[in-house]
């Protein structure tokens, strides 16, 4: 287990190094930040001074090494636009995005897995067909459109839920959270649901496929022959056997959900990371873009690491053989 | 009620309606099983012996369906029983062991957990007593260090131990009838012999009745008192195991015996049965065995032979071999 962890950590570090290079080089390829930093009427002297201050006159590799050095000391640089450390900017927005993402994933799992298992357990039934039809809609209709429809129906027509914002928040552990107040929860429902839909459909399809296959296998037949109820078969055997692919996809989806909550956050004016990155791209705020991309790659890498470890926890065959065996 | 057989199967018919046509996997199977008796159900792959086992438990997967006949367990009809009643009966009255323990045991759960689930399913044994019962049964099945096996996962056990665990799981709720579907086929010969010996001991000790499904006549002869030979969904010959093996009346049984390596003289080639098992979609007219039978006549091609019997030895053949 320790050896596995160590190997994975080294791999993760390599991936991060490569990613930081790509991101740094990639961001340098677009635009000239100087035009954003200073007004068009600034004198040549001021211009030269700013270029020197930000190290923009140095060759790319020198700039990268400097960036890497500061990064390793926890310094992501200052935002060109806001003039504050980038890390602060991101950390203020991160909880809102995490809150939204985790709620969406919670909805996807608690609703999607049971529905998918049902659809796989009774594949021909009208209810299963309805679930599968809904899941096709979930994977194929664009998120932004569903988001707009949700606002139209629940906020505009019915007036049950607010259309945007985080609502009332409570300060816990130094950050603001919406899900702890009734008003915040009401604000959270629609965007979380919107963000959940795609993953919900994905969970349904995966759980269905796994259940279909396992229901035909000997494990289920043997359990039935021993007198287990259908509920016990599903709960104890099938759920355990379909868990691995679900965890894999969930892990990968979690990272991409954080990264691409952009659309939902924009539609529901949710003040998260997505909105920050969109703003920084329009204003060519390089340090924010680079820091955001590096953090997102870090998130992907970490989650892949966690998924690998979760496998070992879920599947006893992947753990190292016990000394007793 | 004392002479009521533990299990009485009569004219059982299980058919599968597939896109290619109707498959008569089990087509009029009848046999009885007394207390503590072991019946060997023998046949080639696809002869319907496993489906017979599943039919008894009501575990035939769609598109399969029991279309007729009866299965009586201690006088109680099982065909058409409500799923709920069938469920409580499985494992507690009639249990089943399968061929491949790697596929039947759940790789994600410990042996102890799987045993616990099976005991919990019938809810008759509680708490610490459960553990004691698991350990007792494992010991009786010759599983060394049962305590530590409870915490083990199936992949940590050898093939022989795995199958012993699977057998233990099936016997946990002390059923009166066990349907053993080739439980030793996947094991090597020495392990097979050990498990057979333990099963024979268990049958003697507990009086459990068993249907031992196998394609291996040698194995069946060592464990069963009576044998039933299946061909294309029917029992073509049945009787006491000694009589049937020493003097088979049906040419198919003869063919099976002649193709056993143990029966061959050293240096001489084995005598396989010519041809292959018929597709159940295109079951031959008349006697299903006639295309492969040296004794077949026009009668065999047109008329399906009825079961005839002498001294408890039954066979379905127009031209039976000589009795001993």
Automatic annotation (TrEMBL), chain B:
GO terms for biological process: peptide transport; transmembrane transport. It is a peripheral membrane protein. The keyword Cell membrane applies. This is ABC transporter ATP-binding protein. InterPro entries: AAA+_ATPase, ABC_Ni/Peptide_Import, ABC_transporter-like_ATP-bd, Oligopep_ABC_C, P-loop_NTPase. PANTHER family: DIPEPTIDE TRANSPORT ATP-BINDING PROTEIN DPPD, OLIGOPEPTIDE TRANSPORT ATP-BINDING PROTEIN APPD. The keyword Hydrolase does not apply. One of its GO terms (cellular component) is plasma membrane. PROSITE patterns: ABC_TRANSPORTER_2. Transmembrane segments: none annotated. SMART domains: AAA (SM00382). Residues 7-257 form the ABC transporter domain. It comes from the Bacteria. It is found in: Cell inner membrane. GO terms for molecular function: ATP binding; ATP hydrolysis activity. Belongs to the ABC transporter superfamily. Keywords: ATP-binding, Cell membrane, Membrane, Nucleotide-binding, Transport. It comes from Methylobacterium terricola.
